[in-house]
C-alpha cells in the first residue's frame, strides 16, 4: 500500500531533525529543552540571527509537523479547535495581566493553585481550568495535581520581554469579532478606504486607525511597543542578510520608522552609518527617548536623529546622499496610497539613491537569496534544503505569523498582502525599478529599488 504523503512527511521531518542536530552542534548551541530555566536558550533571543543551517532545518521541521497534523487530525477535532481558539489568546492575556506568569517564574519547580489564589486573589478552581488550557497550549506544565510550572516558551511573556508587548494591546478580540459583519456591510463591503474597516465597526468610530490611535496615549504606547516587538523579531535577519556596507556613503532615512528601533540596531552594528528616523509628530518624543536609551553611548552625536514627517508630504531630504528605507510601512496602505508614498521618495531620490522596501512577499518566491534584474548571473543559491517539501509549502506551514498579521492589518487598515508581481507593479507605477531582491532569515524580504532612468 502506498503511503506516499505520510512517507514524504516522515522523511522530511527525520531529515530536518538530523540536520538541526548537526547545525546546532556546529554552532556550539546547547541542546533544546521545553523546561523553564534560569536563562533563555540562545535560539529564543531577538538580538542575533539564527545560524543558516539551524534556520532552514527548523523551518522544515515545523512545516512538516504542521502538515502531519493536517494529515492525521480528525476534521471534527480541527473544527472544535477553531471554535474555541479565542481562549488561546484570552488565557495568555489572563496569564500575563494578572501577574501569574511573573509569580510562577519565581518557582521554577512549580507553584500550587492554592498559593496563587492566596497571593493573587484569584479563584483556584477557575485558575485550574485556565492553567490546564495553557498547559495544553505548551506554555506551562502540570507537574502534580494542581501544581504548575513554566515551560521555556513562557519566558518570552515575562516583564520586559517582547512577547508581552504583543499580548498587551487591547481591543483585538473586538476587531476580530467585527470581521464577519464587515464583509457584508452595505457601505464597507467593497470599499478599499482605511475609513471603512472592521476597526471602525468594532470601535464605533469614523476615524481611520492612525487618527484614532493618536487620541489615546495609552493605546498608542501599547500599539507602538507591539509594532516594535514585531520589528525586532525580524531585525537580526535584516541586519545580517543585506550588504549594509554599500550604504556607508549615504544617510539612511527610515521613513515611518516608528520609535527608531531598526535605525538604532543598524547604528549599533555599523557605527559608520548615519540615520534619520522620520515619523508622525506624536511619535517623535517616543523615538527620541528610545534613541537616548538604546543607542550605543560611544556613538558620535547625531548618528541617529528623529524628525517629524508625513509620508504623503514632499520628502525634504533629496539627492544621491540619501538611502530611503521603509520597513512594514507600505503594507499599511492600499495600492493608491502606497504608490503615492513611493512617488514622494522617487521625486527626492538621486540617480544613485536606493529605496529599500522591507516587506513580506506572499505567493511564490524565487529560489535565490539575491536576484538582480540587471545581472541575472549574480545570484546566491539557498543552502541545500533539509526538506522534500517545496519552499512554498515551507513558507505556508512553518509559521502562521505572516498570515495572522496580514489578516489583522486587513481588518484595521484595509490593506492587502502582495505577491512579487504586485509589488513590482506598485514600484513601477511610482517611477522606480527593483534592482535587487534579498531573501532574509525572517518572514520579510528586502526589495532594493532605484529611480527609473529617463
Fold and architecture overview:
There is one protein chain. The protein has 454 residues and is α/β, with parallel strands linked by helices. Helix content is 46%, strand content 13%. The chain contains 19 helices and 12 strands. The protein has helices spanning 4-26, 52-72, 75-83, 86-97, 100-104, 113-120, 124-136, 162-167, 172-177, 179-183, 198-203, 209-213, 217-240, 261-269, 284-294, 335-348, 391-397, 401-413, 420-429, and strands spanning 111-112, 140-144, 147-150, 251-255, 274-279, 304-308, 322-327, 355-359, 368-371, 379-381, 432-439, 445-451. The strands form 3 sheets. A 7-stranded mixed β-sheet has the order 6-5-4-7-8-12-11, sandwiched between helices. A 3-stranded antiparallel β-sheet has the order 1-3-2. A two-stranded antiparallel ribbon has the order 9-10. Helix 1 (4-26) packs antiparallel against helix 2. The chain is globular. The N and C termini lie far apart (63 Å). 35% of the residues are buried.
Concise overview:
The protein is of the alpha/beta class and 454 residues long. It has helices spanning 4-26, 52-72, 75-83, 86-97, 100-104, 113-120, 124-136, 162-167, 172-177, 179-183, 198-203, 209-213, 217-240, 261-269, 284-294, 335-348, 391-397, 401-413, 420-429, and strands at residues 111-112, 140-144, 147-150, 251-255, 274-279, 304-308, 322-327, 355-359, 368-371, 379-381, 432-439, 445-451.
